[in-house]
């Protein structure tokens, strides 16, 4: 049975499966795959797969292994074009061909030059029906990190900020203020589990002495790589971040002027140090920093730093997604502005972004914005 509505439903299920390992498969995308078979009574799911932690095995061979011999004549739904090149394992397009599937439905073509339509071509040349473009917009968002890294050599940058109803993140002299509701805090920790890395500036690292790990029960091992931008080598060796480098990876992006003795002390604690060029102000070059973490395999970054890092990334046009946790609390006089004193409602005026979400979490309102691709 072939039906556009059935294709959308099964692709939605494949996307849901693919999200399970988001943040755990870098440098590869977390792909979802479903194999269905229809013997006359309607389609039945006979195999499911999601890219394994570390990026191997891929989703398709896992789904095919679960389906077994029943995959012959079946339909496979895959959230990203099956790979066509030989890596540590064989091409997924060849695995689908050799399994004897009759039909392959994909969401989007893989922009990776090693694939870029060649996976679909292998399938078509074998006489397999290929349908693509099903739930393409949703898949492009799920695989935004992979797409951004392949096309631009940097990760997908997601900015998260908690702010008061009048657009402030804290108060002068008091620093950050507890703004988020418990429900919103849990949501943020969930975001951490689905992102490859979390990034803050040295100001946040010094003022808050954070751990930047996921504190949801049972998900501590899903904590992302922690990245600190530290232009002049100010992060103390006895900071919480450095002390826990053995528990969750810590990368410090710094400039070449940082004291080599401090770099050695960081490294002795298990820290990965990524030296990059400085910009004209002497700070870490943001494009260079993102390129450096991308070169290590990172495809997505959750920015939880303060207004300085947020505004610098916005000014450099390096933000792809923004998530604002807006509290009903008003800070008023003496507030530290998130964006030049603008309230959250002013953000949609930025022509670079489109609002794609507005939900309630406890008493808070969570707004989500997505970068418009240049035409």
TrEMBL record:
<dbReference type="InterPro" id="IPR002734">
    <property type="entry name" value="RibDG_C"/>
</dbReference>
<feature type="binding site">
    <location>
        <begin position="306"/>
        <end position="312"/>
    </location>
    <ligand>
        <name>NADP(+)</name>
    </ligand>
</feature>
<comment type="similarity">
    <text>In the N-terminal section; belongs to the cytidine and deoxycytidylate deaminase family.</text>
</comment>
<feature type="binding site">
    <location>
        <position position="208"/>
    </location>
    <ligand>
        <name>NADP(+)</name>
    </ligand>
</feature>
<dbReference type="InterPro" id="IPR004794">
    <property type="entry name" value="Eubact_RibD"/>
</dbReference>
<dbReference type="InterPro" id="IPR050765">
    <property type="entry name" value="Riboflavin_Biosynth_HTPR"/>
</dbReference>
<feature type="active site" description="Proton donor">
    <location>
        <position position="60"/>
    </location>
</feature>
<keyword id="KW-0560">Oxidoreductase</keyword>
<comment type="pathway">
    <text>Cofactor biosynthesis; riboflavin biosynthesis; 5-amino-6-(D-ribitylamino)uracil from GTP: step 3/4.</text>
</comment>
<keyword id="KW-0862">Zinc</keyword>
<keyword id="KW-0686">Riboflavin biosynthesis</keyword>
<dbReference type="InterPro" id="IPR016192">
    <property type="entry name" value="APOBEC/CMP_deaminase_Zn-bd"/>
</dbReference>
<feature type="binding site">
    <location>
        <position position="215"/>
    </location>
    <ligand>
        <name>substrate</name>
    </ligand>
</feature>
<feature type="binding site">
    <location>
        <position position="192"/>
    </location>
    <ligand>
        <name>substrate</name>
    </ligand>
</feature>
<dbReference type="GO" id="GO:0008835">
    <property type="term" value="F:diaminohydroxyphosphoribosylaminopyrimidine deaminase activity"/>
</dbReference>
<feature type="binding site">
    <location>
        <position position="231"/>
    </location>
    <ligand>
        <name>NADP(+)</name>
    </ligand>
</feature>
<feature type="binding site">
    <location>
        <position position="304"/>
    </location>
    <ligand>
        <name>substrate</name>
    </ligand>
</feature>
<dbReference type="GO" id="GO:0008703">
    <property type="term" value="F:5-amino-6-(5-phosphoribosylamino)uracil reductase activity"/>
</dbReference>
<dbReference type="Pfam" id="PF01872">
    <property type="entry name" value="RibD_C"/>
</dbReference>
<keyword id="KW-0378">Hydrolase</keyword>
<feature type="binding site">
    <location>
        <position position="92"/>
    </location>
    <ligand>
        <name>Zn(2+)</name>
    </ligand>
</feature>
<dbReference type="Pfam" id="PF00383">
    <property type="entry name" value="dCMP_cyt_deam_1"/>
</dbReference>
<keyword id="KW-0521">NADP</keyword>
<feature type="binding site">
    <location>
        <position position="83"/>
    </location>
    <ligand>
        <name>Zn(2+)</name>
    </ligand>
</feature>
<dbReference type="GO" id="GO:0008270">
    <property type="term" value="F:zinc ion binding"/>
</dbReference>
<keyword id="KW-0479">Metal-binding</keyword>
<dbReference type="InterPro" id="IPR016193">
    <property type="entry name" value="Cytidine_deaminase-like"/>
</dbReference>
<comment type="similarity">
    <text>In the C-terminal section; belongs to the HTP reductase family.</text>
</comment>
<feature type="binding site">
    <location>
        <position position="162"/>
    </location>
    <ligand>
        <name>NADP(+)</name>
    </ligand>
</feature>
<feature type="binding site">
    <location>
        <position position="58"/>
    </location>
    <ligand>
        <name>Zn(2+)</name>
    </ligand>
</feature>
<feature type="binding site">
    <location>
        <position position="204"/>
    </location>
    <ligand>
        <name>NADP(+)</name>
    </ligand>
</feature>
<dbReference type="InterPro" id="IPR024072">
    <property type="entry name" value="DHFR-like_dom_sf"/>
</dbReference>
<dbReference type="GO" id="GO:0009231">
    <property type="term" value="P:riboflavin biosynthetic process"/>
</dbReference>
<comment type="pathway">
    <text>Cofactor biosynthesis; riboflavin biosynthesis; 5-amino-6-(D-ribitylamino)uracil from GTP: step 2/4.</text>
</comment>
<feature type="domain" description="CMP/dCMP-type deaminase">
    <location>
        <begin position="5"/>
        <end position="130"/>
    </location>
</feature>
<feature type="binding site">
    <location>
        <position position="212"/>
    </location>
    <ligand>
        <name>substrate</name>
    </ligand>
</feature>
<keyword id="KW-0511">Multifunctional enzyme</keyword>
<dbReference type="InterPro" id="IPR002125">
    <property type="entry name" value="CMP_dCMP_dom"/>
</dbReference>
<protein>
    <recommendedName>
        <fullName>Riboflavin biosynthesis protein RibD</fullName>
        <ecNumber>3.5.4.26</ecNumber>
        <ecNumber>1.1.1.193</ecNumber>
    </recommendedName>
</protein>
<comment type="function">
    <text>Converts 2,5-diamino-6-(ribosylamino)-4(3h)-pyrimidinone 5'-phosphate into 5-amino-6-(ribosylamino)-2,4(1h,3h)-pyrimidinedione 5'-phosphate.</text>
</comment>
């Amino acid at each position: 049975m072939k039906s556009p509505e059935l294709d959308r439903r099964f692709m939605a299920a494949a996307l849901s499966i693919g999200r399970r390992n988001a943040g755990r498969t870098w440098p590869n995308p977390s792909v979802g795959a479903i194999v269905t078979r229809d013997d006359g009574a309607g389609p039945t799911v006979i195999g499911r797969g999601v890219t394994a932690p570390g990026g191997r095995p891929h989703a398709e061979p896992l789904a095919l292994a679960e389906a077994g011999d029943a995959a012959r004549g079946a339909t496979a739904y895959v959230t990203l074009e099956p790979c066509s090149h030989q890596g540590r394992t064989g091409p997924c397009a060849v695995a689908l061909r050799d399994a004897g599937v009759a039909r392959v439905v994909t969401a989007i073509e893989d922009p990776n030059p090693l694939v870029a339509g060649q996976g679909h071509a292998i399938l078509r040349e074998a006489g397999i029906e290929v349908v693509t473009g099903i739930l393409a917009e949703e898949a492009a968002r799920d695989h935004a990190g992979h797409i951004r890294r392949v096309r631009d050599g940097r990760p997908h940058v997601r900015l998260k900020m908690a702010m008061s109803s009048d657009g402030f993140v804290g108060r002068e002299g008091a620093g950050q203020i507890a703004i988020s509701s418990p429900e919103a805090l849990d949501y943020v920790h969930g975001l951490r589990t689905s992102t490859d890395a979390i990034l803050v500036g040295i100001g946040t690292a010094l003022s808050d002495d954070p751990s930047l790990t996921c504190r949801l029960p049972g998900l501590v091992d899903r904590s992302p790589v922690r990245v600190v931008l530290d232009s002049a080598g100010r992060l103390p060796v006895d900071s919480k971040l450095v002390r826990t480098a053995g528990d969750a990876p810590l990368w410090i992006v710094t400039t070449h002027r940082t004291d080599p003795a401090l770099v050695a002390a960081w490294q002795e604690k298990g820290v990965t140090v990524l030296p990059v060029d400085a910009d004209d102000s002497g700070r870490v070059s943001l494009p260079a920093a993102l390129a450096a973490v991308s070169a290590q395999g990172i495809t997505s970054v959750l920015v939880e730093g303060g207004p300085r890092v947020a505004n610098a990334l916005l000014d450099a046009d390096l933000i792809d997604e923004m998530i604002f946790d807006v509290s009903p609390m008003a800070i008023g006089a003496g507030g530290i502005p998130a964006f030049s004193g603008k309230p959250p409602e002013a953000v949609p005026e930025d022509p670079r972004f489109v609002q794609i979400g507005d939900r309630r979490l406890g008493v808070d309102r969570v707004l989500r914005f997505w970068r418009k691709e240049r035409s």
